[in-house]
Here is the input.
Amino acid sequence: MRGRYMTIGIVLVLILSIVVVYEAKENNLSGNSISTIGSSELGKLTAPPHGVNIGDRVIYINASATIPVELGPMNANASMYSFSILGEVNPKLEIKHGIIVKFIAINVDTDAYHNFVVTNEAPPYYNNFGGMMNGFYSFNNSYGYMMSYLPPQSSGRYAFVNVSYDFSNNGTYWYLCTYPGHASEGMYGEIVVN
Ligand SMILES: [Cu+2]
Here is the structure.
């Protein structure tokens, strides 16, 4: 009898964990590991969040916010080696001092891998820095977060990952894609914190 209750208990726990994992996969825009979203969810990310204003190739971030960043938008007239942030291609980000920004990096490219990394290192960037020298991607004088390369879109699903940066130090920073050859082709933008 006890054995049977135990079996039922284990089965219930298993079902519950599957449901929890499934829910997390479907709704989760908050994980730090790579997950995917569909195009309808992607479409909902176009409105500027509260405290965020869009200028001509510049985005003003005046309150802690979640900012979607599209990697490798195919409709960018400049080049596929670009980011699109709230409709602007490789915009300058003007961030108010002390703000935490959560970026949702989403690869919308059809055939290339990309990532999104914030660094103190100014351009020019060279073609073969894919090996990444130690400290190249440092941020606020400590090692930066090195995002894995996100795979291109597949079957209408887009790979994404979140990363939060605490912009508590004034200064000039850069965001870029560290995939070899991409930043040297222009896949980067400026961040000014003050
Ligand atoms: Cu790239």
About this structure: Confidence is low (pLDDT under 50) at residues 18-28.
